[in-house]
Amino acid sequence: MKLKDKVALVTGSSQGIGQGIVLRLAQEGANVIINYRSHPEGAEDTLAKVEAVGGKCYMAQCPKSHGFTIKADLGSVSELQQLITESIEHFGKLDILVNNAGIEKHAPFWEVTEADYDAVMNVNLKGVFFATQAFVQHLIATNRTGKIINISSVHEELPFPNFAAYCTSKGGMKMLTRNLAVELGALGITINNVAPGAIATPINTKLLNNPEKLGALLQNIPLGRLGQPQDIASMVAFLASADADYITGSTFFVDGGLLWNYQEQ
Ligand SMILES: NC(=O)c1ccc[n+]([C@@H]2O[C@H](COP(=O)([O-])OP(=O)(O)OC[C@H]3O[C@@H](n4cnc5c(N)ncnc54)[C@H](O)[C@@H]3O)[C@@H](O)[C@H]2O)c1
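# nicotinamide-adenine-dinucleotide complex -> structure
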């Protein structure tokens, strides 16, 4: 168990990659906070799975379960600050922040509305910025080190026509991580990005239901399959653990080789 006694918050963990990360961190012994925006049933499903992989609680003052769900919209700074506060109140501290919540909107650049631009940037970049700030303030106040892991994308590097705001947000996340690695290093706080390729989650429902597009995409993935949430979760568990204490400011691509073999269809 790499994360015994640790407390981790995973944003947007009612489904998909976030749910996979929560389960893996719990299996490694962490106490986990499951965040959702609008699907309490998804968060409850994640919690039930956490309890099923269960084991005992390792904290000195144990809550009943070693998982906990909190509703908060990561696009709202006041709500995400409340999320961090409640997480700390529940388990007494926070050691690991996984900024996973993210959305994308499809449109040609010349048709992107201000509302869609704001929706993407508020969750994918502004939300990450201020959730990280609130977490760092807690670590400074308690004089402790911690780990920040951002779920970025191959599109922090790779252009994706018709997803300009999404790519802008993930490119911004890349630079935020580099900047904070330098600024937070002296505090013993590490920050890294995990950049998924094509993962089988609800964000890709349209693609998964289109055999022609899916077949073309698979041709571009050297390992010949879509990724699964657990492929991302195992990298997050590593970066959250003491095994990664000397790693900061880096992006780790978990993409089956897609980034270096991509051809737009
Ligand atoms: N699936 C992929 O192929 C893929 C590839 C690259 C990057 N990613 C990134 O991985 C992360 C997770 O995506 P996923 O594939 O699991 O997608 P998903 O749509 O299944 O899950 C996204 C999660 O974020 C939550 N969320 C969205 N807006 C929120 C908000 N305002 N407040 C709180 N939660 C909110 C959703 O409720 C959901 O739980 C995202 O940041 C996404 O950009 C996914």
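# post-check
Strands lie at 7-10, 31-36, 67-71, 96-99, 146-151, 189-196, 251-254.
Residues 7-252 form a domain with the Rossmann fold fold (CATH 3.40.50.720).
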